[in-house]
Design goal:
Blueprint: H1 4-24, H2 31-80, H3 85-88, E1 91-92, H4 100-113, H5 117-120, H6 124-142, H7 148-151, E2 161-162, H8 164-210
Antiparallel strand pairs: 1-2
Helix pairs in contact: 1-2, 2-8, 4-6
Length: 211
């Protein structure tokens, strides 16, 4: 969730670092370019600090939402589908014996437990995206018959049984990993922009001092 107080702190920190950078580096620029460079530097540091704060705030909120929706889905499954095999006992992969019909039953039982986006109270696009990832993961891990036990092991619990809890646990980890990767890539892009500016300004300030 967006925290205005922390956003203000990030903004103040960005401005403060920008001012300090002006005092240490930009002061060596030619006088006719110094004032405009002061402004650009402060704005850049302010912008980057707010963007990074926004990225990690969204990251934190997304992971929290993933965990909350996973818990909501599990509770909904237990309440509305108490007789579903994945809710009751789960599928023991050691007992599937490469039976295609049983493998298809697993997928059908997973689909039955999925609530709609309206049930969860979330945007349909976001819901479809998450469900698409989840179903692809499930199908990928249990569709190859001769590799069933090894492939689906990441979806199972300690008893090698496929349950609603073990599936959601795996999906949570997969979605959390995806969110973290996206956040780190975005943060790295903006950090690189700032780094390029810092390097260029340091080199220019050095040239001006030596001139």
């Amino acid at each position: 969730m967006f925290n205005i107080g922390l956003a203000v702190i990030a903004a103040v920190a960005g401005i403060g670092i920008g001012i300090l950078y002006n005092i240490l580096v930009i002061k060596n620029y030619p006088e006719n370019q110094r004032k405009s460079s002061y402004v650009v530097t402060v704005i850049l540091f302010l912008f980057i600090s707010l963007v990074l704060f926004g990225i990690f705030s969204v990251n934190k909120g997304a992971i929290k939402a993933i965990n909350e929706y996973a818990a909501k889905i599990e509770q909904s499954a237990k309440t509305n589908f108490p007789d579903n095999v994945l809710v009751k006992d789960g599928f023991n992969l050691d007992e599937l014996n490469n039976d295609v019909s049983k493998l298809n039953t697993v997928v059908d039982n997973v689909k039955e437990l999925l609530p709609s986006h309206a049930d969860l109270g979330i945007d349909k696009t976001l819901y479809d995206f998450a469900v698409s990832i989840a179903m692809k993961e499930v199908q990928k891990n249990i569709s190859i018959v001769n590799k069933t036990v090894n492939a689906a092991s990441s979806f199972t619990d300690e008893n090698n049984s496929l349950t609603i809890s073990s599936i959601l646990n795996h999906v949570q980890k997969s979605l959390t990993k995806l969110v973290n990767i996206i956040s780190l890539v975005l943060a790295a892009i903006f950090a690189l922009i700032l780094l390029i500016y810092v390097i260029k300004s340091l080199l220019r300030a050095k040239r001006e001092k030596q001139a």
